[in-house]
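[Meeting: bench + compute handoff]

Bench side (C.D.) handed over the final construct sequence. Compute side (W.E.) agreed to return the predicted structure before the next meeting so the bench team could plan truncations. Sequence as handed over:
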Amino acid sequence: MLGIVHERVTFPVMWTMLDKRGNSDSDSDERIELMDRFERVFPDAEIHCLTGDREFVGKERCSFLLLPEAIPFRLRLRHSDRITSHWGKHRQRGEQVFASLRVGEQLVLSSKRWVWGRRVYVVATRLEDGQLLILATNHSPKTALADYRLR
């Protein structure tokens, strides 16, 4: 489902009914088709950013968003997703990279990192319940967490 956030309320504008149980976790094509459909119906839409939960992420989906006319995105990573070091030589799970964050703390990694085979900015915060919220974004990493909260 795609929704538009206006004044902190999300309005669903486009969706696909699946002929299977659960979500479309296993099929990037379903999400890409939904975005293509949105762009056909709303060709002049100005997209501030696309947000997506952990089931949205993956190399194919990220690659689609990084095409020449890139769509700004804020996508939540799984704790197990691998993030490279600053120089790209070592890969660690997201939960290891941000293990030292305390509740309410935020960290924006200093440069783009390799995630899902693409270079993206990575930011994280520790939520009130102790969980990590880790995001990948292709621009404006300092506002990524605030943008994601609006979803």
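W.E. noted at the follow-up: The chain has four helices and ten strands. C.D. will use this when planning the next construct.
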